Amino acid sequence: MMTLLLVLIVNTPMVNYTQLYDTISSYSIVWFIISIPIGMLIHDTYFYWLHRVLHHKKIFRHVHLVHHQSNNPSPFSSYSFHILEAIGEGLIIPLLLFVIPLHPIAIYIFLLVSFIINIYGHLGYEIAPKWFRTSFLFNILNTSVYHNLHHSKFQGNYSLYFRFWDKIMHTENPLYIELYDEIQNNRFKN
């Protein structure tokens, strides 16, 4: 759906209203590099609030339940959506194109990173290295355990990449750190 929406915008006169640019020097290599994490921050915000809407009791069973049929997710469930949810998810690309200047290669990198993180979140298995728990990154980034808790409990841990929206909105599952530590301690037993 993201690809379809991207193709529809780029191959129609709508492209003239976007901030898509084709020469890196039009902005700078620095902007090219930072546009990707900025896009991820915008995407995480968009995803968090869209996800909260999808969990509304009047919407959930008609739209988002398709995705939640995987209580213990797998990589195959990462893009298993009802068509309405897929459209909602896919609208991030047009939103980004209308809000910030993006080079096509930055869009492809953004989509690849998003794809990899989404697969990781739906592994149903934690692969983060042992050092991750004691790094500053643990307080910022989501893990597979983080999103797996969302699938098993059907609420909380709504964000995609970063933990800050769940922390700010008090929707982070209070069992997350305890469960993460238990899983990692079992993984790294000597």
Automatic annotation (TrEMBL):
Residues 38-171 form the Fatty acid hydroxylase domain. InterPro entries: Fatty_acid_hydroxylase, Sterol_Desaturase_Related. It is found in: Membrane. Keywords: Membrane, Transmembrane, Transmembrane helix. GO terms for biological process: lipid biosynthetic process. One of its GO terms (cellular component) is membrane. One of its GO terms (molecular function) is iron ion binding. The chain crosses the membrane at residues 30-50, 79-99, 105-123. The keyword Magnesium does not apply. PANTHER family: STEROL DESATURASE. This is Sterol desaturase family protein. It comes from Chryseobacterium antibioticum. The lineage of its organism: Bacteria, Pseudomonadati, Bacteroidota, Flavobacteriia, Flavobacteriales.
